[in-house]
Specification:
binds magnesium ion; 5-stranded mixed β-sheet; 8-stranded mixed β-sheet; 38% helix; alpha+beta; 426 residues; Rossmann fold; BirA Bifunctional Protein, domain 2; binds adenosine-5'-triphosphate
């Protein structure tokens, strides 16, 4: 028996209503806040991620699915990678399609995406090798902190609409590249005497980008991290002011947050604002739902014009896990047919096909089975389908054009014409 590859999984029909709900609420949020969808390819040139995400990140360093494409005549096969995240691709598309052209100074490009990402990490609950993200990117020439606060407001609405209430918004500023370079030296000096207490990955991080040590999930490393100077202490003045404005905009919108000076995000391209939303219910150890931040340098890193950017991504897998039991149950219940047709006899069977066709044409979700059965067996099948009503068709109904409509919850039964039934269900 051939099974799914480690770290991948099937999303079964019983879970799909939950996925659809999260996607639908996200799309509604994006509609309200003026985001439009973009779909980029699932694989790109490896160089895009190497440069865009950064060689020093865990993602590029050890998590990418990279392969060499078949060689074409006269040229070697190029190195391709299954996308580990979507921001670099969206910024690539923004540059490639010159979305920055013909823009007024304040005009923003607001995009969102939904789709699978691929990272070769250790699989566990809430951590997969193929997982799904929904994310947004705001690009343009403005880096107003109000842009960031508005995106936070949208996330706040989104979570409330899904009734995911027990979450914490963590915010920080990682400053400008220039101030960060100075800070990184201070940080390396502070880490150096503790180097022997850090894990192998952190040794690598120390060499390539010491800031990433804050990201380490190994407990002994976290003990060292707690003693290190934070980036907040050496922020440049412009970034400090930007952070103050961001917080003021959040306050004005009534959005609660916690400043965490040790929260730096896993990607190299972040500047200034970084944030995470952490969930507390049903998630276990993998409790980061949303991650995002500002990335003013990314466009230039991959060969584009100077562009300011801000965005986030959330894990759809984890967002579905964060739905409450009650919410999940009611979503599953709503995923049943409205009517299950029960017919008795050969003539009624033929008539039922016409009735089903008419009901479906009128927008009703109809289930029926094709075998002629005794009433009791047929009603058991109707119950099993979780339909709201059973529609009973026998010889008498065929003759009169009135059908028995039985509410399967209350047991109440009425005799109605097809038009009356359609009215009832719409
Ligand atoms: P983590 O710290 O959990 O590894 P990350 O910093 O790598 O997260 P991002 O790259 O910012 O995460 O991705 C944003 C969100 O995507 C995460 O907060 C999480 O909800 C989700 N996510 C990331 N990696 C995975 C994965 N392997 N499986 C499921 N969801 C994931
Ligand atoms: Mg990760």
């Amino acid at each position: 028996m051939i099974q799914t590859v480690r770290g991948t999984r099937d999303i079964l029909p019983s879970d799909m209503p939950l996925w659809h709900r999260v996607e639908a609420v996200a799309r509604e949020a994006f509609r309200r806040y003026g985001f439009r969808e973009i779909r980029t390819p699932i694989f790109e040139k490896t160089e895009l991620f190497a440069r865009g995400v950064g060689e020093a990140t865990d993602i590029v360093h050890k998590e990418m699915y990279t392969f060499t494409d078949r060689a074409r005549q006269g040229s070697e096969g190029e190195s391709l990678t299954l996308r580990p995240e979507n921001t670099a691709s969206v910024v690539r598309a923004y540059i490639q399609h010159k979305m920055f052209a013909d823009k007024s100074p304040g005009e923003l490009t607001k995009l969102y995406y939904i789709g699978p990402m691929f990272r070769r990490e250790r699989p566990q609950a809430g951590r997969y090798r193929q997982f799904y993200q929904i994310g947004v990117e705001v690009m343009g020439s403005s880096d107003d902190a109000a842009i960031e606060a508005e995106v936070m407001e949208m996330l706040d609405w989104f979570l409330k609409e899904l009734k995911i209430t027990n979450t914490t918004l963590l915010i920080n500023s990682v400053g400008e590249p220039a101030s960060r370079a100075v800070y990184l030296e201070t940080l390396r000096e502070a880490i150096r005497p503790n180097l022997d207490k850090l894990c192998g990955d952190c040794h690598h991080r120390f060499e390539t980008n010491a800031l990433r040590v804050f990201d380490c999930k190994v407990e002994s490393c976290q003990t060292v991290v707690a003693t290190l100077p934070t980036i907040t202490d050496s922020l440049d003045e412009a970034s400090r002011q930007h952070f103050e404005q961001f917080k003021a905009h959040l306050d004005a919108r009534g959005i609660a947050y916690t400043v965490n000076p040790r929260m730096v995000r896993g990607l190299d391209y972040y500047t200034r604002t970084a944030f995470e939303i952490v969930g507390h219910d049903g998630l276990g150890a993998q409790n980061t739902l949303v991650g995002g931040g500002r990335y003013d340098g990314l466009s230039e890193t991959i060969g584009g014009p100077p562009t300011k950017g801000f965005g986030f991504a959330f894990g759809l897998d984890r967002m579905v896990m964060a739905l409450s039991e009650a919410e999940a149950e009611s979503l599953r219940a709503a995923d049943a047919p409205s009517i299950f047709i029960v017919f008795l006899g050969e003539a009624a069977r033929a008539h039922s096909f016409v009735v089903a066709q008419q009901l479906r044409a009128a927008g009703v979700a109809v289930a029926m089975e094709f075998e002629d059965r005794k009433m009791k067996k047929a009603m058991a099948a109707a119950d099993k389908s979780r339909a709201t009503y059973a529609l009973i068709v026998g010889d008498n109904e065929v003759a009169t054009g009135k059908y028995g409509l039985k509410n399967l919850k209350t047991g109440e039964q009425e005799s109605l014409t097809l038009d009356e039934i359609i009215l009832r269900l719409n």
